[in-house]
Design a protein that fits this description.
mainly alpha, 131 residues, single chain, flat
Length: 131
């Protein structure tokens, strides 16, 4: 009769505990005390959302056109000012888009730019309708 004994060698002297595989070796290794700085991604996303909301409010003309506290001249001035801001921003984004290779490289940005130009036109038309 021949008996063969197979055992799994780990990192030296075996403990009294029975091994549960290679995972034991890694579990027994000391964990690094140096940790990476923690980022609160949820808080970052909230900040970005608030910034985005603030930017949109800067260009939102729809509330101004229906504001009953403003007379027609004030409405006209506010809405035209915001329409011009939207148009300027759209032109800047369009220049950046061209520098990056056009709508073929970034079709989503092309759509954003088009939507901004359309929004500026809508604002100017709304002013004309409400005169």
């Amino acid at each position: 009769f021949f008996f063969f004994f197979f055992f799994q060698a780990e990192d030296g002297i075996r403990d009294a505990q029975e091994s549960r595989g290679l995972g034991d070796v890694y579990k027994r290794q000391e964990k690094s005390t140096a940790s990476l700085p923690r980022k609160d991604y949820l808080a970052e996303m909230r900040k970005q959302k608030e910034k985005s909301k603030a930017k949109r409010a800067k260009y939102d003309w729809t509330n101004d056109i229906h504001d009953r506290n403003l007379n027609s001249i004030e409405k006209y001035n506010k809405v035209v000012e915001k329409a011009n801001l939207i148009e300027e921003q759209a032109k800047r984004k369009e220049q950046m888009l061209r520098a990056k290779g056009g709508t073929e490289k970034d079709p989503d940005m092309g759509e954003v730019v088009s939507d901004m130009f359309i929004d500026a036109i809508k604002a100017k038309l709304a002013v004309l309708e409400n005169l």
